Amino acid sequence: MSQQLSLLSAHDPALHDRQAMLALLGSWQGEGWLRVLDVALARFCVELDPHSPPLLLLGAALSSLQLGHGHVCLDLAACLAEPGLGLSVNPSASTLPPARLLQQISLDDWLSSLQQSPLAGTAEAGNSPLVLDGQRLYLRRYWNYEQTVAEQIAARLPRQQALPATFSMRLQELFSSPPEQHGKRLCDWQKVACALAARSAFSLITGGPGTGKTTSVVRLLALLQEAALQAGQPLRIQLAAPTGKAAARLSESIGAQVAALPVSEAVRELIPRVVTTLHRLLGSLPDTRHFRHHAGNPLALDVLVVDEASMIDLEMMACLLDALPATARLILLGDKDQLASVEAGALLGDLCRDAEHGYYAADLQHWLEQVSGERLDDPQLRPGSAQAQPLAQHTLMLRHSRRFAGHSGIGQLARAVNQGNAADARQILASPAADLQVLRLHGSQQQALAQLLLDGHGAALGYAHYLQVMQQQRPSVETADQPSAWLHWARQVLAAFEQFQLLCALRQGPWGVEGLNTQIAAALLQRGLLDSDQGWYEGRPVMVTRNDYNLGLMNGDIGIALCMPDSTTPSRQVLRVVFPRNDGQQGLRIVLPSRLSAVETVYAMTVHKSQGSEFAHCALLLPDTLNPVLTRELIYTGITRAREHFTLIESHPAVFEQAIQRRVQRHSGLLDALRQATAATIAAG
Ligand SMILES: Nc1ncnc2c1ncn2[C@@H]1O[C@H](COP(=O)(O)OP(=O)(O)OP(=O)(O)O)[C@@H](O)[C@H]1O
């Protein structure tokens, strides 16, 4: 710290001398403000151009840092205006070292330093490592991704799709039970979504949990396939999700919905029930960032539906759009209010920015009302136009949850949190609701916490449940040569484990995943539900942390270690880790523990990792002090993972309220790029 202060106090030589800037960046790395990677990029810039101005080096290091925080670029103006927010560091840290340097830099000076350097090329020119686009500084690769996404979406927006003459009639038939509240008929937004998506080559359907995203899209696919089949040209449809877990969940719900569709068997047969992961769809190539499918080898499909789109990062979206044939439709489903992807970008949030207010052009609104027979008179809607809000004409927000209707505590709590209404959220938690519970820890109340985590409360289960299923339903030794009995048991244990999940905001510290995992395993051991809590033991639940293509396991897949008969010598019991295959057919993958190199115990899971999953009972544990990761989106995502019961565990009540007031902010230029790309598409006719 003292070295760093001296560097700054001597009239900031870092601002005029590149070696001093490198030394300063090095000291920030020492302080933990920058990563090795960030400083290495600044050094690389000096290697490429020994005359690099100090402000370019600063820009390079901070652009790289921003990527680590999920931003696509460094927004120079935002960073200078409010270094704490602009750089995503803890706003309560008043002694932010970069702030003292940044307050001595003017935006004009920074821009002119960057403009003079060959390393920060303008948008179109060359292959410089950095791109300066207006007041945003990018690493070129990410600027390229953003441009690809913007151009590909802009190219699809004007392509209106022809609809069969019977479309409106079939729509009424498929959506025959509109939502109601207190006996009053509500607008059937699902029907409107279906109409909007049917006429577009690109559409976005957003909505909270249980608002009917899947239902709408299954019915849409039925209508499209029915018409295509009548025309003698069935559509090649694919369904995908960003993670194996999300794909498995969607496969399950789509399977049931397709089976119930009031359409002919021939149409039903041509609607896929298995959802694949985006990595599998694109064909991951091990150890590279590249995929088998790309612009030169596009996917063979006519319609692609991607669910849980909030989890798609910018790079994946660029690769996906690149591989999508120009003629194919793309329908993105997701909840815009959930946490953004772990990697850089906040695509769904960015793309759905206008969703609440609709901003439909008058002629589109008229068409939607005519075709759907619904009146779009929601007070939140605002008039718009295709010129001013081109993307809004392809976006629809579903507004009524079928799962969390009226009196549901989880639904009300999620809504209050989403609206940033902390007082209401607290009141909802305080009022008696069968599906909500608060556990307030005073000091170290290990016993109350352990009891909740092991036994749950009332009908809400805890972790003891899956271990009881494991012990009580284990097949007898006489069935050692009957694999089906053991596979059935393994499926039951996996299903029982999904009944409850503890979510943490943090990874480290006493309130983090790592500490809680140790504590829970110890408590289960003490209760006699486990034989060991060290190394590999029967009952250990693990999550895969890195894709393993050889084993067919993807990051986020969850398995449980179980003693099973050895396949070659059934009389011998061996420890294996059993994973669901996520193939929609209840298949299992059985793996030797020693082959799993990247797994971690998963009694506790971060909220980030829980995206795309749902649990009957979900408990969210908040730390006792505010932390940069604690935001409204994190709390909302945690609450909406719960299907039937939600428990909030807190040791300092104000943290919940404070977190709700803070939003995830991710800098990107996607909407500007989209605006430019749309204007260019229109100009090109
Ligand atoms: N129009 C409808 N008529 C009858 N039931 C419906 C309708 N829409 C949705 N549901 C039911 O509500 C539940 C949630 O619907 P769905 O799974 O389509 O919502 P979702 O938005 O995709 O949910 P998730 O948040 O899990 O992704 C399901 O049980 C579904 O069968």
From TrEMBL:
Annotated keywords: ATP-binding, DNA damage, DNA repair, DNA-binding, Exonuclease, Helicase, Hydrolase, Isomerase, Nuclease, Nucleotide-binding
EC number: 5.6.2.3
Domain RecBCD enzyme subunit RecD N-terminal stretches: 31-138
SUPFAM superfamilies, per database record: P-loop containing nucleoside triphosphate hydrolases (SSF52540)
Enzyme class: isomerase
Note: In the RecBCD complex, RecB has a slow 3'-5' helicase, an exonuclease activity and loads RecA onto ssDNA, RecD has a fast 5'-3' helicase activity, while RecC stimulates the ATPase and processivity of the RecB helicase and contributes to recognition of the Chi site.
NCBIfam families linked: recD
PANTHER family for this protein: DNA HELICASE B, DNA2/NAM7 HELICASE FAMILY MEMBER
Protein name: RecBCD enzyme subunit RecD
Organism of origin: Pseudomonas fluvialis
Gene name as annotated: recD
